[in-house]
Design brief:
7-stranded mixed β-sheet, 43% helix
Length: 517
């Protein structure tokens, strides 16, 4: 990624390059549309990523949106070269990666053109101030009239807590140059500190334990660059927005809108927050209450008129993907019976209205397939076994539900929903990208632009053969050949190989890994 303060550090230790679902143009377009903008449609948009590393985020976008245009810039020659090799292997003509310092971009429109979406993930807090200001200039000058910029950054107050970890580890490794040893010693000193603090200092000891657990989840590459790098500048949300405002940019929303919701707090707290001021002021109070350490903020031009309170009928233009599940094994759709649904980030909502329960239940059953609004309404109606047709009030009620649960991370909205097979065909096909990644990289990117780890050796083996030409019989022969030659080792007990293969194919479909014919 882009770190101008350390010219060769990313050539020496490349940064992990993967997909970030929240940066996908379809996701950004859906949020912008929800709040009254008229953004460029994902299939024909122009996207710029600053700090693109080896293209792990842009390459899957370019594969799934072949008529869109993508440009990536990064300061690491090594990472750009790796990305260019992948682009050549996949034969992508709609993606350009360039080795360039952000400060070298003098006139964005003349040099690269204008862009509908500008992505800056994991860069802003980790570069010197001149680069941060140039990023905002590029967003101001390079965004189209209805364009959206995504910028992530470390945030206070949460990073106040993490600063002592950064201070301790950087002090401890100040005289160590070798990257692996720097990472090892950083982890070691944190473990030492957690055990060295006496039990009487219980709060501090518990916080050290929490930070040690957090750092344990980081790879050495992330630890070296994000935690131990020379630059790491967090911002209070209001400070970031004041800075963005100086460049003619305004707050649109967060890439994950659930962070702006107040329902987790008591009615008294919600009332106090609702009268606190505008969205930036309210958001800053929410950051204080939640001790938030990281933000993914969406910006647009100041002159853009926004609809801050979306209306229920606005959801009719979207396809909806369910990302929550019922708590009960058997959902009672009767009137007045409360059923609870839980999102992946543990938000729980209780519903007693039959159509609302039926809609979320149906989305759960077909997940991760997105469903057009009208199709969802009719499917929920059918689950209730009701006569006649849904009324306008039913449509409005479903729209109100979707607005409510979208903010809680229980559904995703799509304007241009990804296309993938709900069930495996006779000749299943994984994308050329997935077939390449499964042989060369630790994770693959599915058709929902999510990083997916496949640990099952049989599934990994199968994916490399799913080219759309291989039927079940040929796939079985290919797997048997891999077993015979010792390149694949799986447990000998359990179901027959044919059943294991079929079960894996259906699992791949549920993971959005199989292309639709």
């Amino acid at each position: 990624m882009e770190k101008s303060s350390a010219k060769n550090s990313y050539d020496l230790v490349p940064y992990p390059s993967g997909a970030f679902r929240q940066t996908h143009p379809d996701h950004l377009a859906a949020l912008a549309t929800l709040y009254g903008m008229n953004p460029a449609p994902a299939p024909t948009c122009r996207v710029l990523e600053l700090g693109c590393a080896s293209g792990g985020n842009l390459i899957p976008m370019a594969v799934s949106l072949p008529t869109a245009t993508f440009v990536g810039l990064d300061y690491s020659r090594r990472e750009i070269d790796e990305g260019l090799d992948r682009i050549a292997t996949l034969g992508l003509a709609n993606l350009t990666l360039r080795h360039m310092d952000i400060l070298e971009v003098s006139d964005i429109r003349t040099e690269l053109g204008s862009f509908d979406y500008i992505l800056v993930h994991g860069v802003f807090s980790w570069v010197p101030e001149p680069v941060r200001l140039r990023i905002l200039e590029i967003c101001r000058d390079g965004l189209s009239n209805q364009g959206v910029a995504y910028i992530s950054y470390n945030a206070y107050p949460g990073w106040h807590i993490r600063q002592f970890v950064r201070g301790l580890t950087r002090f401890h490794v100040r005289n160590i140059e070798e990257p692996k040893e720097r990472a090892r010693q950083a982890r070691s000193v944190l473990a030492f500190a957690e055990h060295a603090v006496p039990a009487i200092d219980a709060l501090y000891k518990a916080e050290l334990k929490g930070q040690l657990d957090r750092v344990a989840q980081l790879t050495d590459e992330v630890l070296l660059h994000d935690e131990l790098g020379d630059c790491n500048q967090p911002y209070y949300f209001h400070e970031f927005m004041e800075l963005a405002g100086q460049y003619g940019l305004q707050f649109l929303t967060e890439a994950d809108p659930s962070y702006m919701r107040m329902e987790r707090y008591s009615p008294q707290v919600q009332q106090a927050l609702s009268g606190a001021g505008d969205l930036v002021v309210t958001g800053q109070y929410l950051d204080f209450l939640g001790c938030r350490p990281f933000r993914q903020t969406l910006l647009c031009h100041k002159q853009v008129s926004l609809q801050r309170s979306p209306q229920p009928n606005s959801t009719a233009q979207f396809s909806i993907q369910g990302t929550c599940s019922p708590v009960s094994k058997k959902v009672d759709l009767s009137t007045g019976v409360v059923e609870r649904f839980q999102s992946a980030n543990h938000v729980i909502i209780g519903l007693d209205e039959p159509l609302s329960k039926a809609a979320l239940l149906y989305l759960h059953r077909v997940a991760p397939q997105p469903v057009p609004f009208e199709s969802l309404l009719l499917a929920a109606w059918k689950l209730l076994d009701r006569a006649g047709e849904p009324s306008d009030s039913d449509r409005e009620g479903l729209g109100e539900l979707l607005l409510a649960v979208h903010g809680g991370g229980m559904v995703e909205l799509h304007l241009h929903p990804p296309s993938f097979a709900a069930t495996p065909s006779q000749r299943p096909r994984a994308s050329a990208l997935v077939r390449h990644q499964i042989q060369h990289e630790p994770f693959i990117v599915n058709l929902l632009h999510q990083n997916v780890h496949i640990e099952d050796p049989l599934a990994r083996c199968m994916l490399s053969f799913l080219d759309g030409q291989t039927d079940r019989a040929v796939l079985l022969l290919a797997v048997e050949a891999e077993l015979a030659q010792g390149r694949l080792v799986i447990p000998s007990d359990g179901p027959p190989l044919t059943e294991r293969i079929e079960a894996n194919l259906h699992k791949m479909a549920r993971m959005a890994l199989l292309e639709r014919e």
